[in-house]
Specification:
single chain; 244 residues; five-stranded mixed sheet; three-stranded mixed sheet; 8 helices; 35% helix; DUF6492; Glycosyltransferase
Length: 244
């Protein structure tokens, strides 16, 4: 059995979905050890709280570089996901990052039974600035397919691959990864979407560790409502879509 830990970053705007995200993760995701919620304050008794104060950067550090305050939090949560394995003691080698609006409805595994391959779902979401950013961040890291991406609102991270990513970026820039990522965002995209932690990791593993990753189909979509049940494997119910 391959044990995974789940990490869910959240904030007040996502509290409406948080409990069903946790409940369904426990119900449907196989071989889960612990579920951690990263937030500024404790919002649930059904997961282990990880305070944002444990991280080596603050939201004000992000705002000092990403000068559009209304988007600083979006960049901040990406960095929380990448750094969580460094902050949480004794975390599993296999870490499922789960957005706090992403709800699973069917049994699912993220590693093959023989522990040989990590399993990844794909999306048709493509955004050119993500690939410009990642190639600036780490020359040689490029888009792996022109028709799909790994941006599916969750992702399995593995500690040794994260270590490799951190080492490569920090050696290249002689800066902490969080700062290197932010300074390479095009200022024209500060107020929009200028980098993607999910797509960086997805392209990194499929470029430098491709013998450890496999793509598998899942039925999923973006939902305008929070559903108790669904025929989909998972749905992501973004607050900005629910409250249009």
């Amino acid at each position: 059995m391959v044990i995974i830990d789940i990490i869910i970053p959240t904030c007040k705007k996502d509290l409406e979905t948080l409990e069903i995200v946790i409940k369904n993760a426990k119900k449907y995701i196989t071989d889960v050890n612990n579920i951690y919620v990263i937030s500024d304050e404790k919002y649930t008794d059904n997961a282990i709280h990880i305070p944002e104060t444990l991280f080596p950067f603050t939201i004000n550090d992000i705002k000092s570089i990403i000068t559009f305050e209304n988007r600083a939090g979006w960049y901040y949560q990406q960095l929380l996901k990448l750094y969580a394995y460094k902050v949480i003691p004794n975390i599993s080698e296999n870490i499922l990052i789960l957005d706090s609006e992403t709800i699973f409805y069917k049994p699912i595994s993220f590693i093959t039974e023989d522990n040989k391959y990590a399993l990844y779902c794909i999306s048709t979401e493509k955004h050119r600035p993500y690939y410009i950013h990642m190639n600036k961040l780490l020359p040689g890291l490029n888009e792996i397919h022109h028709e799909f991406s790994g941006i599916v609102h969750h992702m399995l991270f593995q500690k040794d691959i994260l270590d490799s990513l951190f080492n490569d970026v920090e050696k290249h820039w002689n800066l902490p990864l969080w700062k290197a990522m932010l300074i390479n965002v095009d200022p024209n995209w500060y107020n929009n979407s200028g980098m993607s932690e999910y797509e960086i990791y997805f392209c990194y593993i499929h470029t430098f560790f491709k013998d450890r990753a496999r793509i598998r189909p899942l039925k999923w979509d973006i939902s305008s409502e929070i559903l108790e049940n669904s025929d989909y494997d998972f749905l992501t119910a973004h607050a900005h879509i629910r409250y249009k």
